[in-house]
Write a structure and sequence with these properties.
It contains two helices and 38 strands. By secondary structure, the chain is mostly beta strands. It has a single domain, classed as Pectate Lyase C-like (3 Solenoid), CATH 2.160.20. The strands form three sheets. The chain has a 25-stranded parallel beta sheet that branches. Strands 3-6-9-11-14-18-22-26-29-32 form a ten-stranded parallel beta sheet, with no helix packed on it. The protein has a three-stranded parallel beta sheet with strand order 16-20-24, with no helix packed on it. The chain is elongated and about 75 Å long.
Length: 447
């Protein structure tokens, strides 16, 4: 039981916070309805001349406006189709409860052609929960910033036993088994996800290309954890949404996105083989996931490898071939992740698994550190080559496991001891791997 004096102290502190919040709303909005044309406010009861709902404020806001939202719970789905900044007055104290609704926030630019939709939107400091599908969905947008939000316990419509998400819109062509995950960038360009916490959804953060190319996006500083049925962070090329763009024949592409300095942990753990820490996927005809960079992340205890690159079906000419080339995995820390599954199966806990039934070129694995993995890097492709250099492999593990016909160039790595791969106490190789010369001490980027 909280002592009475402590309880009163807490109440006083809470009252002080609310008084401060009210004063700040007044100062931002101008009391009694004399708000600046560029600033609107929202409170749950409409006090201080503010709107009662976030949706009403968005509807009333001119392009370029800032909407300041006071503490409270807002039971609504907020759809944004114009340039606005949506800011929680007290971080994480404004909650969008989307129970029974499709999304918590939908930044919707699909009325325009890909790349020309809604632009210059900011969403900062909200808790978003209980949506049937994504907590936050961004579609056909550019220069969107999502920062310091907590997106939790969404994807409520998922029927995991049936592997389906009843009612999900048909423009989400490959999301039937995960309801779109917690945050979904779809056809997004030059957008940023910064310092968000994403947990308790089917999966964490998804970048895909059903309605347009997703390229040049930055996903950084996020804490993505305990999403039980899918990857923590996914970049996946999907079939185009012909219901929206009937002329689309092949995917638009997930291209040159950066995943940097995130922690992705304990995702995809509830079903065997359900989710990696970071997944890059180009699975079907004409799918493209290329030029993406995964750098300086912590990838821990996920239900699949820390990073998984998959291509499961290759279609030669005249169909445009799948493209899973040119991705870079550099400077990450891997620990305690699980084996891969199904056709991409690995024989033990794996840090990185690169699996393709088509050629793989230009993929680089460098400056990573591995711990508590049986296989640090697995590579399987019928042709092409993997470049793996300046990594710190762990003693006793298979440092590089080349499972297919394509070779791995794995020179200048630390194999857990100065004697080199295969010697007593060192990491080993398997398959066609070139490992000479090797490093005689662990690699450090600071040297």
């Amino acid at each position: 039981m909280i002592p009475k004096s402590e309880s009163n102290s807490n109440c006083n502190r809470n009252r002080s916070r609310l008084v401060f919040a009210a004063a700040l709303v007044l100062s931002l909005c101008g009391a009694c309805g004399v708000a600046s044309a560029a600033t609107l406010c929202v409170t749950p009861n409409g006090a201080f001349g503010c709107q009662k709902t976030i949706s009403a404020a968005v509807a009333a806001a001119p392009a370029g406006a800032t909407i300041v939202v006071g503490p409270g719970t807002y039971k609504e789905m907020v759809t944004i189709t114009k340039s606005v900044s949506l800011v929680s007055l007290v971080p994480l104290r404004a909650t969008i409860d989307a129970k029974g609704l499709a999304n918590g926030i939908f930044i919707n630019g699909m009325s325009a052609a890909p790349g020309t939709g809604v632009a210059n939107v900011v969403v900062s400091g909200f808790t978003v929960e209980n949506a049937n599908f994504e907590g936050i969905l961004v579609a056909n947008a550019n220069n969107v910033t999502l920062t310091a939000n907590h997106v939790t316990d969404n994807d409520k419509s998922l029927d995991i036993a049936a592997g389906m998400c009843p009612g999900i819109p048909d423009f989400e062509t490959n999301e039937g088994d995960d309801c779109g995950e917690g945050i979904h960038l779809m056809g997004a360009i030059h957008s940023s996800l910064v310092r968000n916490e994403v947990n308790g959804n089917s999966g964490g953060i998804l970048t895909s290309d059903e309605t347009g190319p997703s390229q040049g996006n930055l996903i950084t500083g996020n804490f993505v954890h305990d999403n039980p049925f899918d990857c923590g962070i996914t970049m996946a090329s999907h079939a185009p949404a012909t219901s929206v763009i009937p002329s689309a024949k092949v995917s638009f592409g997930v291209i040159r996105n950066t995943v940097a300095d995130n922690t992705s942990s304990h995702n995809g753990y509830q079903l065997p083989g359900a989710g990696a820490g970071v997944g890059i996927f180009a699975a079907g005809p004409g799918n493209t996931a290329t030029g993406n960079v995964v750098i300086d992340n912590r990838l821990l205890n996920n239900g699949m490898p820390g990073v998984a690159l998959h291509n499961h079906a290759y279609f030669p000419a005249p169909t445009p071939p799948d493209n899973l080339n040119g991705n870079v995995i550099v400077g990450n820390y891997f620990s305690g992740n699980a084996a891969d599954a199904a056709d991409a199966a690995t024989s033990g806990p794996t840090g990185i698994n690169i699996y393709s039934v088509g050629p793989i070129y230009g993929t680089v694995v460098s400056q990573n550190t591995f711990d508590k993995e049986a296989i640090d890097v697995a590579f399987k492709a019928p042709s092409g080559q993997l470049s793996a250099h300046f990594n710190n492999f762990e003693r006793g593990a298979i440092g590089v496991d080349s499972l297919g016909a394509a070779p791995a160039n794995a020179t200048e790595n630390w194999w857990g001891c100065f004697l080199g791969p295969g010697n007593r106490g060192c990491a080993t190789t398997s398959g066609t791997v070139v490992s000479t010369p090797w490093l005689i001490s662990p690699f450090s980027a600071n040297k």
